[in-house]
Design a protein that fits this description.
By secondary structure, the protein is α/β, with parallel strands linked by helices. Helix 7 packs parallel to helix 8. It is elongated, with a radius of gyration of 24 Å. Bound molecules: iron/sulfur cluster.
């Protein structure tokens, strides 16, 4: 029984109000620079490119720093000496260096009577860099829906499961996709989560687990479930799920809802089969907890007017990559937007650039790059108005759960 990796934990997300302040600062200046010329500054340049902010160059204090070259991380940009830009009337500098260095940088600027600078907090600097840095193969994970519909009907589901028609992936397609993704990743990935909707409703679940384990001998493979069917599936129509989990080293993660399920019996079954079973009402926190399940509201902007600079505040960004029907999507919201559209007669549009065809790409690095910048669909996510909404309850199936 392997140990659980912490793949469902949410990393620190940059503060949204500081992102807004950063943008306001940048827009005030005709000539914008980033202080420093290192790895962090490369990722900040990438973030500003994402935001549509034109950066003219990096700025350094002394000639020696000019010779550093980290452009392989993202892209080349002129490196100027502070002397060259300090008298320019509309020059602004964003300082995103480590705060440890502020005691040198800020007095230097003040001594030169230069006050047009913006000090990023360490928290936001690290948060932005973490979000836009392409993941290594050891960090990459995939989510795969084995049933878009569910046997529960939760309000505000971020996979829109309570709104979905009965939907299973095509068997042949799913087998091929698992094989293909194995090849693309050269059989190494951090983790794959089988979820939904409710994945245990899929009668081919054991087949898929077997293929996934063959393709990824060392990855963490997880069934993310509400647990309702687990005890029945010891004698499932297509085999014993518990034995399969034991044979293929599959972990089971149960989201705990305030419904009647014999969680103790499930834990006991896990021990009997030597299968790691974990349960939590919030699978995104470090310490597993069975406190009351809270529903998060993922507010959508139906007009698609949200500027891209907000996207790094998204918990799904560069984190919950989805494989569906031969394509990789940034997140479950985009991947399942067709369910939302159908249920509420909306037209949130997915563009070609919202997903990658796994049969057209050559390597996993393309997935890592794809996931590390916003997709066009991000314009529909009103992240400023995402929040822990209320205690779990059944869905009203009304659009107000999302607007
Ligand atoms: S579309 Fe973009 S902003 Fe919306 S949930 Fe996905 S990653 Fe987040």
């Amino acid at each position: 029984m392997g140990k659980r990796k912490k793949i469902h934990l949410i990393n620190d997300l940059p503060h949204i109000y500081e992102l807004e302040d950063t943008m306001s600062f940048c827009r005030k200046y005709e000539h914008l620079y980033i202080w420093g010329n290192g790895e962090t500054e490369q990722y900040l340049l990438k973030y500003f490119d994402i935001c549509g902010i034109i950066v003219e160059g990096f700025v350094v204090a002394k000639e020696d720093d000019r010779n550093l070259d980290f452009s392989n991380i993202y892209r080349k940009l002129p490196v100027k000496l502070f002397e060259e830009i300090k008298d320019c009337p509309s020059a602004g500098i964003v300082i995103g260096s480590s705060e440890k260095l502020y005691h040198r940088i800020i007095p230097f600027l003040r001594k030169n009577n230069f006050s047009d600078y913006f000090e990023m907090t360490e928290y936001n600097r690290q948060g932005i860099v973490c979000q836009v840095r392409p993941r290594t193969r050891e960090e990459l994970t995939l989510e795969i829906s084995l049933a878009d519909h569910c046997n529960l009907s939760c309000q505000m589901c971020d996979h829109f499961s309570q709104l979905s028609d009965k939907w299973f992936p095509d068997y042949e397609q799913m087998c091929n996709d698992l094989r293909r993704i194995g090849t693309v990743f050269d059989h190494q990935i951090a983790a794959i989560s089988f979820l939904g909707g409710e994945p245990t409703l899929n009668e081919h679940l054991i087949d898929y687990l077997k293929i996934a384990r063959e393709e990824f001998p060392d990855a963490e493979l997880i069934i993310l479930t509400n647990g309702v069917e687990l005890l029945n599936l010891e004698n499932g129509k297509t085999g014993n799920l518990w034995k399969a989990c034991s044979d293929f080293d599959i972990h089971i993660m149960i989201t705990v809802y305030p419904i009647k399920i014999d969680y103790e019996a499930i834990e006991k079954k896990g021990r009997e089969y030597n299968v790691l079973v974990e349960m939590s009402s919030n699978i995104h926190v470090e310490d597993l907890t069975k406190i009351t399940k809270i529903s998060d509201k993922h507010t959508m902007d139906l007009t698609g007017s949200i500027p891209p600079f907000y996207s790094v505040n998204c918990l799904y960004f560069n984190k919950f990559t989805v494989l569906k029907d031969g394509r990789v999507y940034m997140c479950p919201i985009a991947a399942h937007s067709d369910i939302f559209n159908k249920a509420f007669e909306q037209n949130l549009q997915l563009k070609e650039m919202d997903s990658l065809d796994i049969y057209s790409i050559e390597s996993w690095e393309q997935i890592a790059e794809f996931s590390a910048k916003p997709v066009p669909f991000c314009r529909y996510c009103d992240l400023k108005h995402w929040y822990h909404h209320s205690q779990w309850k059944c869905s009203s199936k009304r659009i107000e759960e999302y607007i």
